[in-house]
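Interim report, section 4.2 (structural modelling).
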Amino acid sequence: MVLMATRTQRTKRRTDALSKERIVEAAIEILDADGESALTFRALSARLATGSGAIYWHVANKDDLLAAAANDVIARVMTGVVSGAVSGAEPQEAIRAIAIGVFDAIDAHPWVGTQLSREPWQSAMVQIFEGIGGRLPALGVPARAQFDAASALVNYILGVAGQNAANARLHTQESDRTAFLGTVAARWVQFDPAEYPFVHQVATQLIEHDDREQFLAGIDLILAGIGSAR
Amino acid sequence: MVLMATRTQRTKRRTDALSKERIVEAAIEILDADGESALTFRALSARLATGSGAIYWHVANKDDLLAAAANDVIARVMTGVVSGAVSGAEPQEAIRAIAIGVFDAIDAHPWVGTQLSREPWQSAMVQIFEGIGGRLPALGVPARAQFDAASALVNYILGVAGQNAANARLHTQESDRTAFLGTVAARWVQFDPAEYPFVHQVATQLIEHDDREQFLAGIDLILAGIGSAR
DNA sequence: ATGCGACTGGAACACTGTTCCATGAGCCCA
DNA sequence: TGGGCTCATGGAACAGTGTTCCAGTCGCAT
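Predicted structure of the assembly:
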């Protein structure tokens, strides 16, 4: 993997020795179990039965740790998607599969969404960029349009990612979510139809809409736009 | 404005009395001058010549303050765009104008980008949603496709917004930006062309690309997709 | 004039990321 | 075998954060 720093360590020290891998693993567990706010160096120290100083020997700072954790999750998604049935499929289907893969990963680990929209040009984003951009030639997109097309798709994905993460931050429970959507819808209905006709009208669809389907609809919209410009 | 809380205060107290407006105004000044990390309740207290307790009487917490600040900026953009020459123009042009308006606002106040991707269903986002969604009927988009179309456009905008804000956080200077892009491009060129053909190939375009133009290209792509599905 | 509620300023609290350093484990060479 | 010497560790200390708490002050209605 070109992205990784060179590492020449052959199982030194105790078997339970600290390592960036072990730290990232523990961090992901905390993030998944109790959310972004639960990941502190104290919590991490406790879980790894060590001190914060030891962790800092392996990890530059918290941003570094979060980037590595997000990279870990995304890398798993990308290798999973690429090695899956998709590799030989139609390029359009491959792009959809990657997008859905990233969406589902962020749905399962909302903190990844926050991280993706927070640190740009990060290795996690490069992987997504490559996965999508690499399929564009096969789609018949002219070379000079590929950069813009890939950027549009990735930015859309990042937008949804951030929004999903923000939603997850607001309510941990599934029941919270529907209740919250109900509240928002109720507020939207009460907007003045003269000033906010669209928001007013769309309020009802808010409750019954499916995030995943809407996400895919957006991907298809962009793909249609890419196709029409061909 | 339906979004604002009811407010029945008629110039009480001293002329320099604290108020949510004055606090938000000062917060925006700090954010614009010295970036997101500079906005602390201590800095705000100092600038307003008061204590943090006084601020908390007018503002629920920091999130509330940031939301109000972002709302302020976006509201100005939206009224500016709507009252501009655009109001009677072709709906497609109106949507482009709104998107560009939001983009430029985030370019000028990067912290707004962070805020937009952080707190969903917020009044700032509702305004953008309405501004864009309200033009879709005139574009000939069927009613049941409008929600998805608006959501796609807004999420794309939010994605770019977050990314722009992250970039701005990384380097304050314009010279920093080009230097940084150069570094990233240099790294991308060195990616193994067998494993990362797209990223490798696109690296050169990275340096000379214009964020604003690429953003607009993405909007046009989505608009083309919306048009083709009509 | 006086009481009362709206408002203020700043001290105190709990908690964060990060740094610093005294100590220990394992290895290499004499 | 024993001494260095580096890698690695754990935890105390630091600076700074958002937030709470509360003793006051001010202006108005009575």
